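Job type: complex structure
Entries:
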Amino acid sequence: MDLSGAKKVVIIGGGQAAAQACASLRLFGFEGAITLIGEEPALPYQRPPLSKAYMKGELAEERLYFKPAAWYEDQNIDTVLSVRATKIDRSAQTVELEHGGAVPYDALIIATGSRPRELPVDGADLDGVFDLRDLADVERIRPRMISGHKMVIVGAGYIGLEAAAVARQMGLEVTVLEMEERVLARVTSPIMSQFFTDEHTRQGADIRTGARLASLKGSDGKVTQAVLADGTELEADIVLVGIGILPNVELAEDAGIACSNGILTDKDARTNDPRVFAAGDCAARPLVHYGRKGRLESVHNAIEQGKLSAAAIMGKPRPTEDCPWFWSDQYDLKLQIAGLSTGYDETVVRGDPEARKFAVFYLQNGKLIAVDAVNSPPEFLASKKMIITGARLAPETLRDTSKSMKEIAATTA
Amino acid sequence: MATIIYVDHEGTERPIEATNGESVMEAAIKNSIPGIDADCGGACACATCHVYVDEAFMEKVGAPEDMEQSMLDFAENVQGNSRLSCQISVSDDLDGLKVTTPESQH
């Protein structure tokens, strides 16, 4: 559908994808009305630092925001904050708001993000039990980050491990509980899991895998104890829950927009309604380098789909899809991830984990599909390019540290 | 405070008043300077804020650290005066600094 005559774009959501869509629409020359409807009181801000530098108090709040408030005024973008959108009426082409009123659209971008999966145990609602998703969560958590206090982290994904690193550096006693047999089980290989387990252990965190939380107990409404399925009791002054996120698809689903673990989109970030787009955590998109659809929870994805939807609305050529990429900071380790390792049949280690500078490459039928690079930007950046080109690499080539990644990449070009 | 002058690949200059302590990248993002994307928000993870530093300021800006240098090695059209603008911190010393954005980032 040609939307070049669109005069009103509405964006539901106030995260990174929403901010990018606003910026890209204006950059692509959209002169009509833009309305951003956000549930949070804050203007769009960066989430990654919430479990890293910001949590640790090393980054001022002001530096989290993508754009200052004045930018939205200058760009004539109407930001409707602390307001929940309650319904998308596709026939009337309006978005209804919780306190009444409806905002009309010619094109709609759903960037509703995701929410933390709730802890399904008794005591999850006790004071001192926190999710880590929003700025407001960090504001609640930070006063409880007291040196010597005991923190139990439920879930050893990136959020859990990043928070564990921050908490250790702030002097808390940290126990991490993971149901699976290894940390980061959903996202990486056993080699990397072992490396991060060793690192956190060395830094004084107690990593417990195969550990199922049974309940949380408290006194006077405040959490004091985590009880495991095997009966183990752990003291806890603060409990942090990081057991994954769920895409916020309900608004789209209720409006009859096709969803399947995310709002289904095509390559242009367009849903099955040609006037409606979805961007960011909430969207299930074609993963063009992998020949399947999937949902990505990342900065790269939020930015890219924000741009894709803006380009489609403006009838601009589709921006080139980048290789998915991610990063995680824990202690002095910078983990940079390119690609998606799901389905790998071979791993190749380059460098020495003992030296805290190494990479694990993931191959599928000899083709490079992903890399986890620890303190190794060349491995990350070279792989990003080689994954896009579908490079085939012999394990001995990748292992050979006498050749630079530039030289290796050149052999595949 | 320092005035940072952003020059695009066509030579258009955009002077911005930047605050001490913020990065040259952050000042650019706040002011929607074209050619600086900074996808990772300044975590030195993406190399999308590559700039060329005016030769006159090379000494004041200083040399990149290891992590930044290896990111730069893979950026497009790298020159001797290439830096990642997220790693340059604004100070009074940098008043008048000119940075040029590479054509490949536009």
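Summary: Chain A has a mean pLDDT of 96. The first strand of chain A starts at residue 8 and ends at 12.
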